[in-house]
Design goal:
Order of helices and strands: HHHEEHHHHH
Number of helices: 8
Shape: elongated
Largest sheet: 2 strands, antiparallel
Number of strands: 2
Distance between the termini: 36 Å
Biased composition (Low complexity): 1-18
Strand order of the largest sheet: 1-2
Strand content: under 5%
Radius of gyration: 26 Å
Region (Disordered): 1-34
């Protein structure tokens, strides 16, 4: 019995070609270079995704850092210490220990967030480097290929032709865009949560008496990274347009949060609510199958 013909995998949407079809000879030259570039870029996407996930701080410190430690510092002067109350300097020593631990957790939070920003920047830049453009060498009949567009008439997509077997360049880009948008959305949420948690610790500290604003940098160079991937508008980083007015109005810097609200914040931080792990795995599996490589 004859085997049935192989059917194409589920294709991404919006896969119409974006440029005129090149000649068969040009396509034969372009395709191997485009294949090499796509393999490299998707391997980089995989590495950037792993960098993001490894940036998550350990689960235990975060719940201890905000819902528990700050209230302890806040109420330490009036807290009933029982049999320990008459020990000389016990309140000051306990407050000092708690403040030191709180500072450690704050640094862990900022460090984790910074790694997520850098990983997101890698994801965005890589997703914009999928195309393969021709570059004619001076005084040479050979055609070289590059990620940079020198000829505005060359869109770098092979005229919408399949790069490997089924998918066009635009289809690979659509899959990369879908993946990257999840991490951008999650990064914006992480930033809001980090501002809330860091503002809380700042208010509890002796040397600080101000809340962080959305327009404040959480680490040196943060807005430079946003600028490099198009998330910065002018000199400011506006609240995401996709957030509803209710969410924007509910977030008021300096407002005291209840223990229950902080627990929700921490749960959201640890859950990566905007990242659909099963869909990300599906995308990498789909691309790996098309390229005949393993992306895990």
């Amino acid at each position: 019995m004859k085997g049935s013909a192989a059917s194409p995998p589920t294709r991404p949407s919006h896969a119409a070609p974006t440029s005129p079809s090149p000649s068969p000879a040009s396509l034969r030259q372009w395709r191997p270079a485009a294949q090499r570039n796509l393999r490299n870029q998707w391997s980089r996407l995989l590495a950037a995704k792993a960098r993001w996930l490894s940036a998550e701080p350990p689960a235990p410190p975060l719940p201890q850092a905000s819902p528990s430690l700050p209230p302890s510092l806040r109420y330490m002067p009036g807290m009933d210490l029982g049999a320990l109350k008459d020990m000389p300097g016990i309140r000051e020593k306990a407050s000092g220990k708690l403040a030191h631990r709180e500072e450690q957790y704050q640094n862990m939070l900022v460090s984790a967030y910074k790694e997520m920003v850098l990983a997101t920047a890698d994801l965005v830049k890589t997703s914009h480097s999928m195309r393969c453009f021709s570059k004619v060498a001076v005084n040479s009949p050979l055609i070289k290929f590059t990620e940079r567009q020198d000829d505005m008439n060359d869109s770098g997509d092979g005229g919408g032709a399949p790069v490997f077997k089924w998918f066009s360049m635009l289809e690979f880009e659509n899959l990369a865009h879908e993946l990257v948008e999840m991490f951008i959305s999650e990064l914006q949420l992480k930033r809001l949560l980090a501002l809330e948690l860091l503002s809380l610790t700042l208010k509890e500290g002796v040397q600080h008496d101000a809340s962080l604003e959305w327009s404040d940098e959480l680490f040196d160079g943060e807005f430079n990274e946003f600028q490099s991937i198009g998330l910065l508008s002018g000199d400011s980083y506006p609240l995401p347009k996709s957030w509803s007015a209710d969410v924007s109005q509910a977030w008021q810097p300096g407002q005291t949060r209840s223990h229950e609200v902080l627990q929700v914040y921490l749960t959201c931080w640890l859950a990566n609510v905007n990242i659909k792990t099963s869909r990300i795995d599906e995308i990498f599996e789909l691309v790996g199958e098309e390229m005949q490589i393993k992306l895990t």
